[in-house]
Specification:
- This protein has about 110 residues and is of the alpha+beta class.
- About 30% of the residues lie in helices and about 35% in strands.
- Strands 2-3-1-4 form a 4-stranded antiparallel β-sheet, with helices on one face.
- It is globular.
- The termini are far apart.
Length: about 110
Protein backbone atom coordinates (compact mmCIF):
# COMPACT_ATOMS: atom_id res chain seq x y z
CA UNK A 1 0.00 0.00 0.00
CA UNK A 2 1.40 3.37 -0.95
CA UNK A 3 1.61 6.32 1.44
CA UNK A 4 -1.17 8.02 -0.53
CA UNK A 5 -3.48 5.00 -0.11
CA UNK A 6 -2.83 4.70 3.64
CA UNK A 7 -3.58 8.41 4.12
CA UNK A 8 -7.13 7.73 2.86
CA UNK A 9 -7.82 5.13 5.56
CA UNK A 10 -9.84 6.26 8.57
CA UNK A 11 -8.29 6.31 12.05
CA UNK A 12 -10.69 4.54 14.42
CA UNK A 13 -8.55 4.34 17.58
CA UNK A 14 -5.30 5.96 18.62
CA UNK A 15 -3.46 5.56 21.93
CA UNK A 16 -0.79 8.06 22.90
CA UNK A 17 1.63 8.42 25.78
CA UNK A 18 1.64 12.05 26.91
CA UNK A 19 3.63 14.14 29.40
CA UNK A 20 1.51 16.99 30.76
CA UNK A 21 1.64 19.57 33.54
CA UNK A 22 -0.65 18.98 36.56
CA UNK A 23 -2.96 21.71 35.28
CA UNK A 24 -5.14 21.19 33.32
CA UNK A 25 -6.52 18.06 34.93
CA UNK A 26 -7.12 14.91 32.90
CA UNK A 27 -10.84 15.72 33.10
CA UNK A 28 -10.28 19.09 31.41
CA UNK A 29 -7.95 17.58 28.81
CA UNK A 30 -10.42 14.77 28.09
CA UNK A 31 -13.26 17.24 27.64
CA UNK A 32 -11.14 19.34 25.28
CA UNK A 33 -10.18 16.28 23.23
CA UNK A 34 -13.83 15.27 22.93
CA UNK A 35 -14.63 18.72 21.53
CA UNK A 36 -12.61 17.69 18.47
CA UNK A 37 -15.45 16.78 16.09
CA UNK A 38 -13.82 13.49 15.06
CA UNK A 39 -13.23 12.21 18.63
CA UNK A 40 -16.20 10.40 20.16
CA UNK A 41 -14.56 8.99 23.30
CA UNK A 42 -11.45 9.75 25.34
CA UNK A 43 -10.14 7.31 27.97
CA UNK A 44 -7.25 8.85 29.95
CA UNK A 45 -5.21 7.20 32.69
CA UNK A 46 -2.43 8.70 34.82
CA UNK A 47 0.40 6.21 35.34
CA UNK A 48 3.15 8.40 36.83
CA UNK A 49 3.32 11.68 38.73
CA UNK A 50 6.28 13.84 39.67
CA UNK A 51 6.65 17.31 41.15
CA UNK A 52 5.55 19.24 38.04
CA UNK A 53 4.15 16.74 35.53
CA UNK A 54 1.98 13.68 34.97
CA UNK A 55 2.52 10.89 32.48
CA UNK A 56 -0.73 9.72 30.94
CA UNK A 57 -2.03 7.21 28.43
CA UNK A 58 -4.87 8.53 26.29
CA UNK A 59 -6.99 6.22 24.15
CA UNK A 60 -9.19 8.07 21.66
CA UNK A 61 -11.94 6.55 19.56
CA UNK A 62 -13.93 7.94 16.64
CA UNK A 63 -15.05 7.26 13.09
CA UNK A 64 -12.25 9.24 11.43
CA UNK A 65 -9.98 10.84 14.04
CA UNK A 66 -8.24 14.02 12.90
CA UNK A 67 -4.87 13.35 14.54
CA UNK A 68 -3.53 16.81 13.62
CA UNK A 69 -6.38 18.40 15.60
CA UNK A 70 -5.77 16.05 18.52
CA UNK A 71 -2.10 17.00 18.53
CA UNK A 72 -2.99 20.73 18.47
CA UNK A 73 -5.24 20.33 21.55
CA UNK A 74 -2.53 18.44 23.42
CA UNK A 75 0.03 21.12 22.52
CA UNK A 76 -2.39 23.91 23.52
CA UNK A 77 -2.66 22.38 26.99
CA UNK A 78 1.12 22.44 27.45
CA UNK A 79 1.52 18.70 26.97
CA UNK A 80 3.80 16.66 24.70
CA UNK A 81 3.14 13.37 22.93
CA UNK A 82 5.96 10.96 23.81
CA UNK A 83 4.78 8.14 21.59
CA UNK A 84 1.90 6.73 19.59
CA UNK A 85 1.42 3.32 21.19
CA UNK A 86 -1.50 1.95 19.19
CA UNK A 87 -3.54 2.83 16.14
CA UNK A 88 -6.48 1.11 14.50
CA UNK A 89 -7.00 2.21 10.92
CA UNK A 90 -9.53 1.00 8.38
CA UNK A 91 -13.17 0.81 7.43
CA UNK A 92 -14.34 -0.60 10.75
CA UNK A 93 -12.92 -1.06 14.24
CA UNK A 94 -11.11 -4.32 14.86
CA UNK A 95 -11.90 -6.21 18.06
CA UNK A 96 -9.23 -5.88 20.73
CA UNK A 97 -6.50 -8.48 20.67
CA UNK A 98 -6.25 -10.36 23.98
CA UNK A 99 -3.26 -9.42 26.09
CA UNK A 100 -0.71 -12.19 26.49
CA UNK A 101 1.35 -12.60 29.63
CA UNK A 102 4.87 -13.18 28.31
CA UNK A 103 5.95 -14.79 31.59
CA UNK A 104 3.48 -17.61 31.00
CA UNK A 105 4.94 -18.23 27.54
CA UNK A 106 8.51 -18.60 28.80
CA UNK A 107 7.63 -21.21 31.45
Amino acid sequence: MTEKESAKQKIKVVEVDVLKPHKPTIVELGQALCKVKSVQTANITVYAIDEKTESIKAALEGDNIDFDEVQKIIDTYGAVIHSIDKVIVGKKKVIDVPKVNTQEITK
